[in-house]
């Protein structure tokens, strides 16, 4: 499991480093907008990693003037380096970010 997560983490890191363009904006300002993104994610094949990254607006660095990042997000599990949002459920680095960020 740990090595599988490591391989997935690397696959995500590589796609982002290669310049994958993701939907960073619009940031969901309301619960309705947030739910609409979740709905799009639920319609994906759960193995379609690239589409998950694109729809959720992944970045491999902190975002905006507040430097938001996974580490301070309510879905981040520090010890597993894991995003626990069910629609994502992927390993993530603490300095990454996506537009589903919440505190
Ligand atoms: S929801 Fe986004 S910002 Fe939050 S932990 Fe998951 S990937 Fe990181």
UniProtKB/TrEMBL annotation:
This is Uncharacterized protein.
